[in-house]
Every structure is written in structure tokens, then in C-alpha cells.
Specification:
10 helices; mainly alpha
Length: 183
């Protein structure tokens, strides 16, 4: 049996927690994690190797809303707004994945309801920067996710950098095919 962190100077690195998420470890495995150590992610990578997936840990954890509180209480989640390479927040990722439990948990823990992705540059893909969680929900999520976001104060009039609003994503005018989750 291997002790978590034994090969990493005793610290439980973010890379190990990422692996636990990818391996679909049971919630009990996360419940037994110690509190976060004062070891930076850069130190963890130096001690334990690189990390192919560059998304913030919270982005991966939204697929497992059962472990979000455990990671948060133990200090492994410290920034609700940490963006991925496109500027997408975890709330946007949860809305895009139609994960109502994760959306509600993030909102209850201070996620910015109207945060926006970064603007896309000329010739850069994917287009449609300045998206919000409501844009992502309108494109692919259920009515329950959209309702939760609206109840929390999502602005339906926010437009992306192409001028499309959430209703345009819902109906397919934003050239993303429209929401196929809803009939």
C-alpha cells in the first residue's frame, strides 16, 4: 500500500488529488485527506512530476459535487474564480456540464454569477469570449440549472464579444447549435 504524498515530501499534492478524481475514487477517500499543507502547486509538481491537465483543481472537482465540500474544508479549494486557459470559471464549467448540484454549491460558496471568460483575439478559436455561466447553461444545460443561475442574479442581457446573449445560445442563433438538453 502506498501512502498518499509519501513520494512527494509528505505533502498531498494537487496532482495526487487530480488523479483521485480521474480514478473515480470513492468520497470516503477524499474524506480521509488531511488539511492542505503549505506547499505550493509548483513545489508539488517539482516533487511529484508535471501535470498534463492544466485546468484548476476546482474545475475537475465540479464533476464530483460530493467531494467539493471536503476539498473546500480541507483547504484544497481556495479560489472560486480560478480560470482555465480560456478564462472559464468552475461555475461556467458546472453550468456547461448541466451539473445542478455543483452549480448550487459554487453559488452558495461565493462564485461570481456574472464572471466572464476572456475576450478572444482575431483568428483565435473558440470564438465567443466574454461568456458567462448563463451563456454556457443556455447552450447545453437543463431548465433547472438556468433557473438556479437566474435566481442567483445572472444577467440575461450580458452579451458575449460577438454580441450574443443567453437566449441566442438557447435558440441556436449563437451558431453553437442551440440547447439539445431541452426539447
Amino acid at each position: 500500500a502506498t501512502t498518499l504524498g509519501a513520494d512527494c515530501g509528505g505533502a498531498i499534492p494537487v496532482t495526487m488529488i487530480r488523479a483521485m478524481i480521474f480514478q473515480k475514487q470513492p468520497a470516503s477517500a477524499f474524506a480521509s485527506l488531511p488539511n492542505a499543507m503549505d506547499v505550493s502547486d509548483a513545489t508539488s509538481k517539482a516533487l511529484c512530476g508535471g501535470d498534463k491537465d492544466k485546468r484548476p483543481l476546482l474545475h475537475l472537482a465540479v464533476g464530483r459535487p460530493d467531494i467539493l465540500p471536503m476539498l473546500y474544508v480541507r483547504g484544497y479549494i481556495t479560489d472560486m474564480e480560478s480560470p482555465d486557459g480560456q478564462g472559464k470559471t468552475a461555475l461556467m464549467a458546472a453550468a456547461e456540464k448541466n451539473n445542478l448540484s455543483a452549480v448550487n454549491w459554487l453559488l452558495a460558496n461565493g462564485a461570481n454569477i456574472n464572471a466572464r471568460t476572456r475576450q478572444t483575439g482575431p483568428g483565435e478559436e473558440p470564438k465567443h469570449g466574454y461568456r458567462t455561466a448563463l451563456h454556457y447553461a443556455a447552450a447545453s444545460a437543463s431548465l433547472a440549472v438556468m433557473t438556479s443561475l437566474m435566481a442567483a442574479g445572472a444577467d440575461p442581457f450580458n452579451a458575449d464579444d460577438e454580441g450574443y446573449r443567453a437566449v441566442d445560445y438557447l435558440t441556436g442563433w449563437a451558431q453553437v447549435g442551440g440547447n439539445r438538453t431541452l426539447s
